[in-house]
Amino acid sequence: MAQTFDPAAATAAYLAQLPPEAHAKAAAYTHGGHWLLLWGALVALLVAFLIVRSGVLVVLRRRFEGRRSRPLLVSCWIGGLYIAFDAVLSLPWSVYSDWWRPRQYGLTSQAFTGWFVESAISLVITALIGGLFFAGLYALIRKAPRTWWLWGGGLTAAFIAIGMLLAPLYIEPIFNKYTPAPAGPVRDEVVAMARQVGVPSDRIFIYDGSKQSNAYTANVSGLFGSARVAMSDTMFKKGADIAEVRGVVGHEMGHYAHHHVVWIAGVMSLLAILAFFLVDRLFAPACRLLGGDQIRGLSDPAGLPVLGAVLTVLLLLATPLTNSLIRIAESDADRYSLVHFDEPDGLAKALVKTVEYRAATPGRLEEIIFYDHPAVGRRIRRAMDWKAAHPKPVSQAAPDAVAKAAFADHIVVFPNLPVGMDGIALKADGTWFERHDFGWAKGRYAVAGGKLCLDEERGSRRCYAIGRTRDGWTLAQGAGAPVAVVLERLSASASPG
Asked: Membrane-crossing residues (predicted)?
């Protein structure tokens, strides 16, 4: 197989599963998204200019201050209201970029009312959290005017950590319903994968992501005890099979096992220190440029639009860096999936379904600047290279397929079974159970590598070497001699008894 398999041809074959018009549509959506970064930044700068020139935050700051000095409370209120004003003035742009445009490309079926209500809820949450963050930030500016930017990085790290810890528990359930993967082959497979690599098997969820997006996706979120892997129901609506589930969930388990969210948050916190340092130097000229004559300086919370404008420009310039950091983590998660679960074709099939919102074959420079995930074409090629370098044995594939077909939906009966024992019933959906007079045990079974392996839910594992004779089949456990077994057809009504 390694001598005849062509990774380049296999990659081209996967990409050819989508017609040229689908690739053209994906490219149009992706390239338009690149321009959205620039236009979004310009909209943010315009909104900052309007808020500064209106003087509304200066007026509110004076009213909140009143006769008593309440800097923490004033900063909190001004911070929350600034976020609200910014969102209201940016609403037409948000409607276009976040709802109308994805809907035009078929990436969401959500009605406008649903999008608007969720956006309003998100705004309230953001304003509350943002108010607290800005209260802390401005306290640092007042207490340590020369080094506030250094402490500001620590404050950012704390808020990121708290947000990651609490989001899966209290925020994400507001917008979606998260449920454990239901009993069946998918859950059995995912639980087995989790046990294989030491990931808690009770942290695998399915959520109704199709409410907001038609995109084929999964994610990992949370921190420490709240961390979880979540698959959107869109995956299954688009026909994800077990191989795809293994490839995708293996990728997300890679994020979980390698703590990518933690180190990305740490790097982002370091970048926040650099950004705040530059804000400290650029605030005064930016304030003059925006016409903030009534703003009393960096420590005045009424200058938040100026601070936001400077950060907008810095974040836009830092796009290649932040995207590259995330791309590194995504590439590492792909490799984790391939190393631990060896599903290159499953991963490739899943990746093809993401082309609709991320063009498959960008130029290298375009990928570095604009892509926060490796290009789909590049990821599929890496999976195919892995497949070429790690060929699965061909000699056993055909016999395994014959044995699996023979054993599935049958009861394996050993000779001279004790009274009351009925043998091992193997269902076609990948489950098995033993029936006998002391109760029954169930779990998963697999036929691979010339063996029939039974993994009980209780954690024990038994494997039998499969043999073929002229008259039937044999099973041998450990170093024991092969024993001829009888395969009886499993009736649809058969159950543990």
From this structure: 34-60, 72-95, 115-141, 148-171, 261-283, 304-321
